[in-house]
Amino acid sequence: MAHACSDHEARSRTSAILRRVAAYTGVTLATVGLVTAFAGTHADAADIDYTSASAAEIEDHLADLETERDAAAADLADLQTQLDAAKAVIEAAAAEYGTSNAQLTVVTAAVESADDDLDAKVSSLVAYAQQQTDKFEEAQDASESAKELAAGIETEQQEIADLDKQIGKAEKSLDAAEAEEAEAAAAAEAEAEAEASSEATSSADSESDSATASYSADAATAAVQFARDQLGESYVFGAAGPDTWDCSGLIAGAYGVSDISLTHSTWTMWDETSGIDRGDLQPGDLVFYNGQNHVAMYIGDGQVIHAPKPGDVVKISDLDMGMSIDGYRRV
């Protein structure tokens, strides 16, 4: 007939569950020290400023983070293995000592094995009681260790989650740093190529300018006279006559009277003419200013004639009129 357990029976059953310990698995559990043997043994990766770090430095930092995560994962696996072992011990104890029938079976077997010898029966029961006591103490250790192991597992899981976030941030920063460095390298390469090209051009110009370009007096004289005839006419950007001009339009028109074709562009006009030294200037030669954004015609006596800017007119100015001079060219 079934009946409810008394408090004494419940306590006895609980004690019996805790009495089976590491003997079932061959693992000895050592309470608090068990967990601290693993927690925090891996080295922390040093902090890094992603905004100033190079790609190589970020890559090293990322490797440290991944190593740290691997160590934390290994610790977590060890803790989980030990917790599983502790649970197996408790489950085995519950199976063997957790019910009244299980305990009765053991006691009955002990008593029956002693036949009719009362002393032997008592000795068997005492031995069984001592075994329960020993297993109870071992199970208490296992229970405490299980609590510590569970806390250690939670700590490791949180650390791994934090490391995953740091690794994700490091990977993004590494991608950005590599892209920035690649862009800088490409820019430096382009600049080096431009410098090499400029040096080659300068060298070619120097070779071509080593002998002063020949001077066509007739065309130069005609160009100067044409430019003088336009004095006072208005500047209009992009205009090339007959009554309005911009700087390169005036020069192209002046040499056009001698059937010499110059492109209506200061930069192209520079390439279409030959370099000369300042001391070789003759009337009709060209002077380029302000990064080749402006051109004027030399007319002698340290003066040039040009179409300056919007709101101004074709006029005569000093050769050194306040703008930086890029060079002197001859048509």
From TrEMBL:
InterPro entries: NLP_P60_dom, Papain-like_cys_pep_sf, PG_Endopeptidase_C40
Top-rank taxon, per record: Bacteria
Protease found in the keyword field: yes
Compositional bias per record (Low complexity), positions renumbered to this chain: 197-211
GO biological process: proteolysis
Stretches that traverse the bilayer: 21-40
Keywords: Coiled coil, Hydrolase, Membrane, Protease, Thiol protease, Transmembrane, Transmembrane helix
Coiled coil: 55-96
UniProt family annotation: Belongs to the peptidase C40 family.
Protein name as catalogued: NlpC/P60 domain-containing protein
Organism: Glycomyces algeriensis
